[in-house]
Structures are given as C-alpha cells and as structure tokens.
Amino acid sequence: MKKILLIVIILIVGCSKPINDDTLISKDGLKYIPYTKELYSGKVFKNYMGGKKQFEGIYMDGEKYGLWKYYTEDGKILSEISFPVTDIDGNSYKIEMIGKQIWIVENLKVTHYRNGNPIPNLSRQDDWNDTKLGAYCNYDNDEKNVETYGRLYNWYAVIDKRGLAPKGWHIPTMKEWNELINYLGGSDVAGGKLQEAGGSGFKAQLGGKRPNYGKFGSEYYFISFDGEFWSSTGDIIVDSEYAISYGLTAVLQDSRIKTNLSLMKSGFSILCVRD
C-alpha cells in the first residue's frame, strides 16, 4: 500500500506544471499554497531579474525534496543538491540560495566527524579550558537546547581534517562570510537579516556562547540573546590562539553583525556553505 501511495505521489509531482517559487507562502520553513493552509507539493522554479533560471526543484509537503538545481546568472550550473540534506548523525537542515552562495541556514547539531569518529562532548569546565582538540558542548549542558539552537563547538573542531560539515559543505571562510554580509546590505544590517525574522531565509538562532574558561552565560552570553559563529579563518599571526568569528545579538534590536577575533577555545555555533 505504501509503495502504491509513493508511486501516486511521484506521478502527481512529475506531471504538475512548475510554478514560480515566489508565489508560494513561506511559514516556519515550509511552503504553503496561497490563501490556504495546504502545504505545497510539486515543481517550482525561480528566475533571475534578467529572465534566466536561478533554481528549479520539487517540494513534498512543503519541504524541498529530491534533486534541486541552482544556476549562475549566465545560465551555468552552480550546484546540484539532493534533499533532504543531512549530516552523518541524520540531522536534516534547511538550505537557501543567497546571492551566489548556497547556505545551510540552521545551526549545526552534529556529534561525529564526517568519517564517523565521535567529537568529544566536554561538559566540565576544566576539561573545556584545557583541551586543544576538537570538542563540542550543548548550551548549559542541556540537550533540550539542541533542537532549536544547535550545539557549540571550539575552533579546533572547525579545522579538524576529519570534517565537521556534512559532505559537500564546509565551514565558511572569512571571505565567504563577508560575501554574504555584503550581499545582505553590509555589517550594519546583515545581523538582523540572518536571524529568523530577518527575511533572508536564514534561521541563524542565537545559541549563546561558551567562553574559553568554560563557564556558560553571563548577562552578555545568554542563549536567544547572543550568538557567535565561527569562520574557518585563523589569525594571520603565526601560532596565535585566535580565529575569526561573527557575532549577532537580539539586544535592543541591534541589526549589526560584528567581526571578532576570538580565542580558539571558545564554544560557538556553526553555519555551513556549499563547496
């Protein structure tokens, strides 16, 4: 019975006429048919202002499904992505094309490197402060925070050769972060646009920070009020213990994104960009 139902769905989607993605209603990361509460299933496309195709794909019950193709403005294939996009632990992530880049727009949750090796979960303050190996933690050591805010990682995990991002993705460099920020209008406004209500398609949740000394939260580090995101770019000074990160805040409706030089031992959130 399930096999028959799947065949029927495939036939319906396969025969449907593609519609412009902009005509659908976005809510909570899902796509709805306008003026209804019905999730959309079918083919979509979106064109650049010049008329050439920007992307094409399929939604199934409001979510991206199957093979999606993304194009450059001159008509060349930028990337082909199969949905759902998952990490090695099976966590699935939302994807958005922003400018000429394709991003995972939710905070990373993975607990294993790409080769299957576990990433140490260091909950004790002394362990976190002393290590110079890759590690992660959950904010306040509470697993309940992970679903919404993802996990926090030190920079040693970011640069580990076993790979932290899902296959086909990587942790953005400083250059890639700056390309995103410039596309969104510059550092004075990009911070607001990267958050869920900012309209860019991102869901960069403010997952708090774990300072290098291992303690969670001061009045400036609270989850849902502050977030810091790693780049894969280290300090230009040889043997430095600092790397480039990007800070967002919801305090006083601050829309800025700040470029920071942060201690590699700090625990920050991670977003990923397509290879």
How would you describe this protein?
The protein has helices at 2-15, 125-130, 146-149, 155-158, 174-183, 190-194, and strands spanning 19-20, 25-27, 30-32, 42-47, 53-60, 63-71, 77-83, 85-86, 92-93, 95-98, 101-104, 136-137, 152-153, 169-170, 226-234, 242-249, 258-263, 272-274. It is of the alpha+beta class and 275 residues long. The chain folds into 2 domains: 2-83, no CATH class; 125-274, no CATH class. The strands form 6 sheets. Strands 1-4-5-6-7 form a 5-stranded mixed β-sheet, covered by helices on one side. It has a 4-stranded antiparallel β-sheet with strand order 10-11-18-14, covered by helices on one side. The longest helix is centred in the first third of the chain and has 14 residues, at 2-15. The chain is globular and about 60 Å long. Mean pLDDT is 88; it is low at 1-15.
Number of helices: 6
State the helicity in percent bands. 10-25%
Number of domains: 2
| Radius of gyration of CA atoms, rounded to a whole number | 20 Å
Q: What overall form do the CA principal axes indicate?
A: globular
Largest sheet: 5 strands, mixed
H-E order = HEEEEEEEEEEEHEHEHEHHEEEE
Strand content: 25-35%
Q: What is the average of the pLDDT values?
A: 88
**Which structural class best describes the helix and strand composition?**
alpha+beta
Strand order of the largest sheet: 1-4-5-6-7
Q: Count of DSSP E strands?
A: 18
> What is the CA–CA distance across the termini?
39 Å
Low-confidence stretches: 1-15
